[in-house]
Amino acid sequence: MPRWESGADARLVQAAYELYLERGFEDVTVAEIAARAGLTKRTFFRYFADKREVLFSGSAAFQASVIAAVLDAPDDVAPIDAVVAALAAAGAGLTALGEGVRKRQHIIDASTDLQEREMIKLATLTSAIGEALGQRSVRGPAASLTAEAGVAVFKTAFERWVRRNGPVEFAPLVDEALNELRGLLAHPEPGERP
Amino acid sequence: MPRWESGADARLVQAAYELYLERGFEDVTVAEIAARAGLTKRTFFRYFADKREVLFSGSAAFQASVIAAVLDAPDDVAPIDAVVAALAAAGAGLTALGEGVRKRQHIIDASTDLQEREMIKLATLTSAIGEALGQRSVRGPAASLTAEAGVAVFKTAFERWVRRNGPVEFAPLVDEALNELRGLLAHPEPGERP
After folding, report:
1. pLDDT at A6 over 80
2. CA-CA distances (angstroms) from residue B180 to A77, A115, A143, B16?
């Protein structure tokens, strides 16, 4: 990478966030992001496939850290606990970034297009967790159910974290959501066979 | 609707399924679907926004029936049981259509674009279920967690149904998946506080 582009990706991300918050995601062009960062469109496309991907550039690293943690969990840890612990750790790393993460969510919440992109990233994460559990000899349907439950817990914790202002620890929110999910499922239907 | 177009939507759906299965979704055009059905492109676009939507034309009715059932469930039924019963009933209606549903899934499984569209439809269904639970006075996070758990159970049951050949009852697969999810979550981490 030529010397003059050093830090280009960070400058592009900052410029994009500023513009998305000022004017709304839909109304901002790649040319404007590049101009605000003092760079060219060509440089933009060296780092990002499109203006949506600026907001999802951390997704691959997030997923990789979750999958590594699931695969590395000790064998005697229950699959759901391995998944939730992996998501809690990766989420703690994410939420430690603070206000930038809340701003990002604010931008996503204002755009159907971005919400769809985020759903797809989460669904991809869920599939990858299911496959990782498969490598830990959890059989197919249990693996995907566990992955879905873990990601549902993560989403609940993350939504709570986003809505609270100021510094909030992430891991306790994950524990709280997991306990809630257990409670929601613990009551069998009246008359159901035991 | 002019008389000569009677049944046009059903003919378009059948033509699209035939072509998608013969040549793959990506390689089929709207003009070809219309021609196979003996209709014009203009008629196609009177019924469907694009060639993907032919495969999702039942989504709105499916979602409406699930939401109506959630809202109509007796007050003494636990939210998770109301959601799972609603999805089981709507799913039973869907799977009663038989081989066409398996063919549809076969087409979707072969296309990333269609898989993304299906994820979005399921995420939309999940949000709508969460909102319906909110109307039943289930508070926000419990509502969305319950909706996610219910949809995860539905997806697991549906995947099993699709993979089995011949007539298979849907409702028992849903009960099986719900019991599995309960089992997966029932084992607290060693050393966890009770």
Report:
1. no
2. 18, 30, 11, 37
Q: Which residue has the tokens 């699930």?
A: B66
Count of other CB atoms within 10 angstroms of residue A152: 24
Sign of CA dihedral B84, A83, A63, A132: negative
Contact flag A145-B80 (C-beta cutoff 8 Å) = no
- In Å, how far are A190, B58, B83, B179 from A194, measured between CA atoms? 10, 36, 20, 10
Superfamily of domain B58-183: Tetracycline Repressor, domain 2 (1.10.357.10)
Q: Is the pLDDT of residue A191 over 70?
A: no
Can you identify the CATH homologous superfamily of domain A58-185?
A: Tetracycline Repressor, domain 2 (1.10.357.10)
What is the SS3 assignment for A73?
A: coil
The SS3 call for residue A162 is helix
Class of domain A3-54 (CATH, top level) = mainly alpha
Record: fold of B3-51:
Arc Repressor Mutant, subunit A (1.10.10)
B122: how many CB neighbours lie within 10 A of its CB? 19
The segment(s) of chain A belonging to CATH 1.10.10.60 are: 3-54
Task: For chain A, list residues whose CB is within 8 angstroms of any CB belonging to chain B.
Answer: 76-81, 116, 119-120, 123, 141-142, 144-146, 148-149, 151-153, 155-156, 159-160, 177, 180-182, 184-190
A15-37: pLDDT as tens digits: 999 999 999 999 999 999 999 99
- pTM for this one? 0.86
